[in-house]
What does this fold into?
Amino acid sequence: MRILLVEDDALLGDAIQAGLKQAGYAVDWMKDGVAAEQALGSEPYAAMVLDLGLPRLSGLEVLSRLRSRNMQGNAKINKQLPVLILTAMDTVDDRIKGLDAGADDYLAKPFDMGELAARLRALIRRASGTPQPVLQNSGVQLDPAAHSVQYRGTIVELSSREFSVLHALMLNAGKVLSRAQLEEQLYAWGDEVESNTVEVHVHHLRRKLFPALIETIRGVGYLMPRDKGG
It folds into this structure.
């Protein structure tokens, strides 16, 4: 899953980026509101962690423009993107302003990294229409919090990117995801995109789990069929 982090404090931003990467996310870190707006117009994200006290354009302005779609960009802009406000401004009035502007959740500084990751997981689940904390499909169980996968009760060891591909496919069971869509969830800005990486990860997932888990839709992408109770 790819996250947009918008935080102007260098030390805190670096710590959050490292913590989210350790939790399995690809993270794009922007340090001001204008850069955040440009990123939202060019890349798809699973969620955004947004500070309010930003230079050039405030966090509330970024959020308001996102929700109204009153920003420059392309079709990748998702005005329903889950947004978690992260700020030192923690008065009731500040919380009300943030939530009224369209925030989905609010976390005050200082905070616990584990709580931030848990809140992000909850936001992403709700946005995908999957309220259960553990994803299940065709005998596969994926636990985002524990970063673990089981198949029919047996633990299956996956690499970080294999886990990310499986997570994206399970969140979108019944929908075809293109190679580009999967790559966009695997890599943050500055990461080197490996050749045929998605094909390799899909091959490994089929081998480690079972061949029919992921279907190839030629010329389109990859599909995990929705569980029919098996």
Remarks:
- The mean pLDDT is 87.
